[in-house]
Design a protein that fits this description.
With about 280 residues, the chain is of the alpha/beta class. The longest helix has 21 residues. It is globular, with a radius of gyration of 18 Å. It has a five-stranded parallel sheet, with helices on both faces.
């Protein structure tokens, strides 16, 4: 899929995130979901190997959403990839739904792991990547993290382990939007030059604008350094695409009223009937 197609996919994902957030009539994690749209569009539109009709395909790449509050970005990607259908998507946050506020492992829906406790996903990814290497399986492992969860010590234990084990089948993506649930990430624990930190631990580091699709594609497709795990430090904007949500932590978790929904759709250039007005 080329960059123009991926831009369209990203726009569709934003529309679907807004739509389901309004339809569920409950508070939802909008800010962190919207910040990851372009990265997820590239992953599911170009990078990851999977079979939509066979989510359990053994050779599929494994994707782990470690920042559990990013489910809206995750579920919308699974929808546009054709792994979950529209009917299932519309059950988000309804009684007995498989799609709730955090990912719950369900391989038939393409959800590789349960996550919610932050700082756990990369350790899981290290284990899966190590097992694949020992079994000589060729799939890749991709772990999507938030910057807030990089405050957790367990993340850095996994970072050191991955480098020590030379896991060049492992890719981490850090959604570096500089805000977390409790406020300005810099005021809580300042990650500062995050790229340099990963580089110091022996990772193959790519720093990108997390909303620039050509940059993201280039980073994922750059030749791999043998024996080094890869990380994309992606500078993003929380609430990206909707002006009253951008860099506004009130939209970390909030309910989308009809008035705000209509305003957001207008900003996105979306009609009630679909995308691309």
């Amino acid at each position: 899929m080329n960059s123009a197609n991926l831009v369209d996919i990203a726009k569709t994902m934003r529309h679907k995130i807004l739509e389901i957030s309004h339809t569920c009539n409950l508070s939802a994690h909008l800010g962190g979901g919207l910040s990851m749209v372009e990265l997820m569009a590239v992953l599911y539109g170009r990078v990851l190997r999977y079979q939509s009709a066979n989510p359990r395909w053994e050779e599929r790449d494994r994707f782990i959403l470690s920042k559990g509050h990013g489910v809206l970005g995750y579920f919308s990607a699974l929808l546009v990839a054709g792994i979950i259908d529209e009917e299932t998507y519309k059950t988000f946050q309804t009684n007995e739904s498989d799609l709730i506020a955090h990912p719950v492992m369900n391989l038939d829906l393409g959800i590789e792991s349960s996550n919610g406790s932050l700082g756990q996903g990369l350790s899981m990814g290290v284990g899966i990547a190590l097992a694949a290497m020992k079994k000589k399986q060729r799939f890749g492992v991709y772990v999507y993290m938030g910057d807030g969860e990089c405050n957790e010590g367990s993340v850095w234990e996994a970072v050191m382990s991955a480098a020590q084990l030379k896991l060049d089948n492992l890719t981490a993506i850090v959604d570096y939007n500089k805000l977390q649930s409790d406020g300005d990430a810099k005021q809580i624990i300042d990650l500062a030059d995050l790229a340099s930190k990963f580089r110091a631990f022996g990772w193959d580091v790519h720093e990108v604008d997390g909303h620039n699709i050509p940059q993201i594609v280039s980073a994922f497709e750059a030749p791999r350094e043998t024996g080094r795990p890869r990380v994309l430090v992606a500078h993003t904007v929380k609430g990206k695409g909707i002006s009253f949500m951008e860099n506004n932590n009130e939209w970390h978790h909030n309910r989308l009223t009809k008035a705000n929904y209509d305003l957001a759709l207008a900003e996105l250039g979306v009609t009630v009937e679909g995308v691309g007005a």
